[in-house]
Amino acid sequence: MSKTEWRVGVAGLGTVGGGLLNFLAEAPDFAPAGGRAVVTGVSARSRSRPRPFDISNLPWFDDPVALATSPDNDIFVELIGGSDGPAKAAVEAALNAGKPVVTANKALIAEHGAELAALAEAKGVPLLFEAAVMGGTPAVKMLREAMVGDDVKSVAGILNGTCNYILSEMDSGGRSFADVLSEAQRLGYAEADPTMDVGGFDAAHKISILAALAFGCAPNYAAAEIEGIDQVALLDIQLAKDLGYKIKLIASADRSEEGVLVRVHPTLVAQNHPLAQAGGALNALFIEGIRIGRIFIQGPGAGSGPTAAAVAADIADVMTRAARPVFQRPAAVLTPFVPIDPARSTTRAYLRFLVKDEPGVIAAVSETLAGAGVSIESFLQKPVENADGVPIVLTTHAVAEAVLTAAIDQIASLPAVLDRPRLLRIART
Amino acid sequence: MSKTEWRVGVAGLGTVGGGLLNFLAEAPDFAPAGGRAVVTGVSARSRSRPRPFDISNLPWFDDPVALATSPDNDIFVELIGGSDGPAKAAVEAALNAGKPVVTANKALIAEHGAELAALAEAKGVPLLFEAAVMGGTPAVKMLREAMVGDDVKSVAGILNGTCNYILSEMDSGGRSFADVLSEAQRLGYAEADPTMDVGGFDAAHKISILAALAFGCAPNYAAAEIEGIDQVALLDIQLAKDLGYKIKLIASADRSEEGVLVRVHPTLVAQNHPLAQAGGALNALFIEGIRIGRIFIQGPGAGSGPTAAAVAADIADVMTRAARPVFQRPAAVLTPFVPIDPARSTTRAYLRFLVKDEPGVIAAVSETLAGAGVSIESFLQKPVENADGVPIVLTTHAVAEAVLTAAIDQIASLPAVLDRPRLLRIART
């Protein structure tokens, strides 16, 4: 069965939808496999909203489900967003109608990926989501296809461009989180409600998807441990710099015999590490396999052009009629990974806290940490203008998180310690 | 047509072949699409040669062509190497027999890729070669599949691990090319005849393949401009370091409206550039597209594990029965790219030469360059022990190569200049 024209229905007409419409209008014959992609229907919340691209000649659907099931299209592209609601309903409807689906929706795949994969495989159609992670940088294809001759041990990287932009600006401009965030909102780099980004949830959706592809299991977003950047103080960025680190929001997934640990948190990364050097709104990822070793990939994680290009590449993949499971294994044998209790993992740590400016304090802190089993790697006391006390920073050697937490409790209870120590983890090199 | 067992014939039993045999013995069910890969025949130059893996239970073929056409296998894997001879004969025979072919042979694909693609597409079978470029790092899949929603403008990177190792060791150890090469040969990092690597020919094969995938044309190895690292002096590495650069063997392909320029040459790369930081035997590549922007990918470019993993990923791709052209376009419409005369390209340059230690020399050189239309960016005269004259180094702003060459001729003819200036190009940032 050869088909020269693939009729594409596009639901969601934001910047990515607009980029895709422009691209397919300019280059309908872009796909190497030789098919022609023509947009034959669009849907969005408002038909009349002003847009920088023309939709007047395209068949309009008020209801994305009606577009998804319309006999006038062969591929359904979902760019609505959101883990539930119309996006999920439309994707399910398209799959049920036996149509290939391409989506950029990380929340949907992270939270409902396994059940949607089962539906797609039952219907024998592809469900592709390259644009859901790292925009135009093909992390999904790499893990789903290029790494199958290896066993991936870990993936770790910078998956949220908004957070990376904010942290980079705080670092280079010496400005507070709140300052940079409000500027980013003014410039359109951050949403009016920035919670999904700065709270770490967007990065957690993405790393949950990558973990599933890397380890051959179902996404398990509920098991992700998530800490955003909204509590990152400028002081920590500056002190980390003095110690030779940058603070980045790192999303990571590590597999061991016991299970999988998926987490997102602000992390100290050594300044000469490639992840520390990915500035601005870049995304970057390390993939480590037992045979291949470490692969690093970096590129733009968002934006109309890159993300639309990723959607287009998925449309081209649909045209190859490749038959493969949605994740690494058929949905029928896909199980959620077993989460590891983070308290059982080990980490190097950065601790910052205020102490009274009096003799014996450092000795008391050092003894407390030693007694708790935490080994100090470096100690930094900086003369900072602070009437409330003297800030102390220390870094530790690798230690079990449960031990670390207990030690922090003990330090916080010392009379000379004025606040609860701020904990940031330090990335492995 | 569903097939649960894919019988694999493997020709060439070096380190990659051994890695593949071990992997398929351990994990025959690795492929997500669900097929089982079983080695059902092997071929190599000598059956009795001692090997660190067991082939005694595998059907042996003296002639790789006989293995390629044997009715007892479904996929032919070519790991023999070489652009012609038995490798080409066996690949042609397998394709003619209607069998999918997976190869790691960059010389074969760079020099005969278009005709082999035509044969594969006429027979309706895939011809895959992920392992031919960057070993386990999936540059081929990225350009062939993930970038099809974009127009790639340029690819540039480090594609030969042996050269990168030698240059890195010269830099870190302050040792000469000859010293490091002989050590690398002793350690098995370089071949007894190192010409393919250090002469830049291996990198040229690889960039010719990437250029074809990036720009939708046939490989045109004959048009590549090639300079190796065998003339890189330790002095240049040290002077480049003083100027803030590392010297790397950069393979690049640039597309413009006039055509394509493919070249390999030792290049100064700014020390904070990701390509400068890819040390040891790493490979690294920038891909720049008009929509996606710049993507960077880095990983191991050789070795048994990574390369065998790339071959295995291609075998898994065969099992998906994806139907796509071998390069970016069907072989029927694939034409070799039009090479651009390098003299018409522009570059920033590093020039190093010896001058007599007498007044007025720098003025004479500066005036000569200014008269020729070359603008100097920086000038460095280092006190180096050298009875024969004083080494002078300068870097230029971007200038047409033809202008640069004419200027070098003029400088060489100045009475105070004692040798022909050594030209190295400086990478764009």
Automatic annotation (TrEMBL), chains A, B:
Return the PROSITE patterns for the record.
ACT, HOMOSER_DHGENASE
Tell me the enzyme class: oxidoreductase
Against Pfam families, the record matches this protein to:
ACT, Homoserine_dh, NAD_binding_3
Swiss-Prot/TrEMBL keywords: Amino-acid biosynthesis, Methionine biosynthesis, NADP, Oxidoreductase, Threonine biosynthesis
Which EC number(s) does UniProt give?
Answer: 1.1.1.3
Task: From the UniProt record, give the pathway where this protein acts.
Answer: Amino-acid biosynthesis; L-threonine biosynthesis; L-threonine from L-aspartate: step 3/5; Amino-acid biosynthesis; L-methionine biosynthesis via de novo pathway; L-homoserine from L-aspartate: step 3/3
- ACT domain location, by residue? 350-425
What Gene Ontology molecular function terms does this protein carry?
homoserine dehydrogenase activity
Superkingdom: Bacteria
Q: Which family does it belong to?
A: Belongs to the homoserine dehydrogenase family.
> Under which name does UniProt file this protein?
Homoserine dehydrogenase
Which organism is the protein's source? Phenylobacterium koreense
